[in-house]
């Protein structure tokens, strides 16, 4: 509050001082309008403090009515600001003719008390009183006085315009800030929903795997339950949008260890070609597991002989490249390869990863898959490095690698 008062009042107090010492430079003194703005926005007490500060140069110039008049304006505008809703103050229009036109139009249909018109009347009335006092007591209170009535009417209405213009400018900035905040919250909510969507999908498939082993291989089922407990423990923790690649690989290893037990080490092999320099790079959390799950469920499981999943990471300049590749059945001819929905039953995981990348990196994020039927599928992802803070993250770029 004090900082805002200083930010507004100090330069405008200097403006009053310029009006006092520089002949015919009356436009520098907008202490009357400033006191009104302080009152309707901050309340009576801050307006009183600001009005008192703004009156100091005038008092030093023997304009002794400046202080009591500013205090009275501060109290009136301050009580008005506490009486109305903040949005009614922010929506005050500096275009006086439009305000009156809207007021007449509204009240012809449905009469009601209009606080914006009340503020307009208060500003003009206080300006008229200031004009009257300045003529009654010359050199004791500053006002733009003239004997020409058209000019006097213009001065009276101009005060409302001077009050309304900064309110409109600040309101535009306030709305823009609120929109940015709403956009950020919407993105966070969407990302959280997408992350939560992965977990039930993953748990459903894992529990099915355990159920298939309980009767015939109880020891292996027990091993799977222990590993699943480790995964659940990790899932129940609070996760950031980004994690180190090493953490993401460790989580994926827990999932793969479950699948290796279920498939058998001779049918499911995992190969890692990980550049050590990439291990501490930040990547979106829960990025690899849905892709690995898709490779197993829809690439290797249909094959009697199983297959190999290869995880790769490397750096190329300022880009981190991550690949998930399998040598499974591939994509059936005629299937689209650009949407991320590879084949029947793979929509949730793959679409989820693609949408999360869009949320995190915007329109620059691209997701693509290359595949040859009967020979496997490869997903290639390219992200900028390093990623330190999600709010400062540059848009990701994606390249398409064909097998």
Strand and helix layout:
Elements: H1 2-21, H2 31-42, H3 44-60, H4 66-83, H5 86-90, H6 96-109, H7 115-136, H8 149-214, H9 218-235, E1 242-244, H10 245-263, E2 268-274, E3 282-284, H11 289-300, E4 307-316, E5 319-326, H12 347-361, E6 369-372, E7 376-384
Helix pairs in contact: 1-3, 2-3, 2-4, 2-8, 3-4, 4-7, 7-8, 8-9, 8-12, 9-10, 10-11, 11-12
**Global shape:** elongated
Order of helices and strands: HHHHHHHHHEHEEHEEHEE
Helix proportion of residues, in percent?
A: 55-70%
Count of distinct strands: 7
- Low-pLDDT stretches are 335-346, 387-403
Class by alpha and beta content: alpha+beta
- The average pLDDT score comes to 79
Largest sheet: 5 strands, mixed
Beginning-to-end CA distance, first to last residue:
62 Å
Q: What is the radius of gyration computed over CA atoms, rounded to a whole number of angstroms?
A: 35 Å
Q: Roughly what fraction of the amino acids lie in strands?
A: 5-15%
Number of helices: 12
Order of strands across the main sheet:
2-4-5-7-6
Your description of this structure?
The chain is an alpha+beta fold and about 400 residues long. Strands 2-4-5-7-6 form a five-stranded mixed β-sheet, covered by helices on one side. It has a two-stranded antiparallel sheet with strand order 1-3. Strand 6 and strand 7 form a beta hairpin. Helix 2 runs parallel beside helix 8 and helix 4 runs antiparallel to helix 7. The longest helix is centred in the middle third of the chain and has 66 residues. The radius of gyration is 35 Å and the shape is elongated. The C terminus is likely disordered.
């Amino acid at each position: 509050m004090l900082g805002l008062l200083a930010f507004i009042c100090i330069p405008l107090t200097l403006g009053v001082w310029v009006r006092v010492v520089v002949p015919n430079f009356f436009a520098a003194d907008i202490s009357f309008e400033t006191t009104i703005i302080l009152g309707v926005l901050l309340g009576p007490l801050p307006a009183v403090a600001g009005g008192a500060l703004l009156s100091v140069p005038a008092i030093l110039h023997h304009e002794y009515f400046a202080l009591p008049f500013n205090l009275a304006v501060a109290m009136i505008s301050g009580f008005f600001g506490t009486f109305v809703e903040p949005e009614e103050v922010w929506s005050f229009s500096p275009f006086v003719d439009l305000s009156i036109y809207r007021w007449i139009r509204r009240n012809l249909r449905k009469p009601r008390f209009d606080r914006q018109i009340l503020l307009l009347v208060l500003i003009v009335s206080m300006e008229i009183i200031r004009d009257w006092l300045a003529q009654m007591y010359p050199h004791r209170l500053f006002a733009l006085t003239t004997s020409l009535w058209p000019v006097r009417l213009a001065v009276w209405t101009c005060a409302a315009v001077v009050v309304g213009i900064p309110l409109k400018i600040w309101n535009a900035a306030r709305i823009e800030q609120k929109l940015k905040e709403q956009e950020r919250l919407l993105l966070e909510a969407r990302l959280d929903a997408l992350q939560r969507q992965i977990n039930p999908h993953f748990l459903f498939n894992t529990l099915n795997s355990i159920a298939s082993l309980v009767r015939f291989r109880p020891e292996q089922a027990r091993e799977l339950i222990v590993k699943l407990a480790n995964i659940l423990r990790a899932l129940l923790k609070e996760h950031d949008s980004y994690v180190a690649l090493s953490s993401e690989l460790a989580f994926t290893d827990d999932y793969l260890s479950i699948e290796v037990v279920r498939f058998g080490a001779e049918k499911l092999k995992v190969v890692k070609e990980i550049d050590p320099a990439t291990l501490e790079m930040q990547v979106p959390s829960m990025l690899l597991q849905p892709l690995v799950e898709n490779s197993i469920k829809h690439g290797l499981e249909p094959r009697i002989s199983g297959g190999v999943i290869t995880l790769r990471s490397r750096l190329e300049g300022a880009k981190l490249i991550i690949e998930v590749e399998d040598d499974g059945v591939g994509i059936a001819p005629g299937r689209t390869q650009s949407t991320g929905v590879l084949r029947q039953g793979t929509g949730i995981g793959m679409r989820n990863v693609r949408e999360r990348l869009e949320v995190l990196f915007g329109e620059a994020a691209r997701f693509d898959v290359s595949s040859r039927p009967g020979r496997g599928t490869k997903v290639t992802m390219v992200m900028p490095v390093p990623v330190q803070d999600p709010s400062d993250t540059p848009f990701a770029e994606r390249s398409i690698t064909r097998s």
